[in-house]
Amino acid sequence: MIVVEDLHRHFGGFHAVDGASLTIGTGSITGLIGPNGAGKTTLFNVIAGRLPPTSGRVIMDGEDITGLPPHELFAKGLLRTFQIAHEFGSMTVRENLMMVPARQKGETLWNAWFNRNAVAAEEKALADKADEVLEFLTISHLADQKASQISGGQKKLLELGRTMMVDAKIVFLDEVGAGVNRTLLNTIGDAIVRLNKERGYTFCVIEHDMDFIARLCDPVICMAEGKVLAQGTVDEVKNDERVIEAYLGTGLKNKVKEEAAHG
């Protein structure tokens, strides 16, 4: 699905992504972990077209998509969410979903004036689809609430719902669990698994909650200092010496090993 080849993104002398190469397989839920400052979000931003790479390539289904703007990637089915949810606070939850599909009939002045029946029919179809999405995500009771009034976790579900309003192929989720209580995080996790298994979505997930990663993700990729350190199952990555050192530092790593050796 996605192949990243020797990707670099520099900010002056700082190499936020420094030669990262990785593969996200079709139909997978791939976890992306690493300490703060590892380059994970910058990598997402480059893949999703929010930042141009300094060098390297991004391939999607055999097509070079390097540097394409977000709206073109959106049309190809590549979507991303953000650490802080981006909602239209003055609109209802249902209306937030209805806004997602591009090139709606009501966006043109001609249709708004002279083709009102077609506009109304499309809006009804979008409202019905939005209600189906809300039911899938178990938040139908929020449909008529202003998006500004729902909780942080519910806003993360709303962002996931936006991806369901279009024909998403791959969705990049950036710290979907940040600021979310455990109950809602489980709901989000259930929705991701169902979208993966029932609708064929491919996901790549940045997350610091290792229990969440272990439950959902295979494979797991670990980054540090802009590079890919390890890739494999969650147990293989967690037990990798380089990963342990990246998270704990050499001193703590050796202390952990000594404590393990002495029982």
From TrEMBL:
Q: Does the keyword Chaperone apply?
A: no
GO cellular component terms, alphabetically, are: plasma membrane
The record's section on Pfam families has: ABC_tran, BCA_ABC_TP_C
Which InterPro entries did the record assign? AAA+_ATPase (IPR003593), ABC_AA/LPS_Transport (IPR051120), ABC_transporter-like_ATP-bd (IPR003439), ABC_transporter-like_CS (IPR017871), BCA_ABC_TP_C (IPR032823), P-loop_NTPase (IPR027417)
List residues of the ABC transporter domain.
Answer: 2-250
Q: Which controlled-vocabulary keywords does the entry list?
A: ATP-binding, Nucleotide-binding, Transport
The reply to whether Transport figures as a keyword in the UniProt entry is yes
Report the GO molecular function annotations: ATP binding; ATP hydrolysis activity
Its recorded name reads ABC transporter ATP-binding protein
Please tell me the species this chain comes from.
Paragemmobacter aquarius
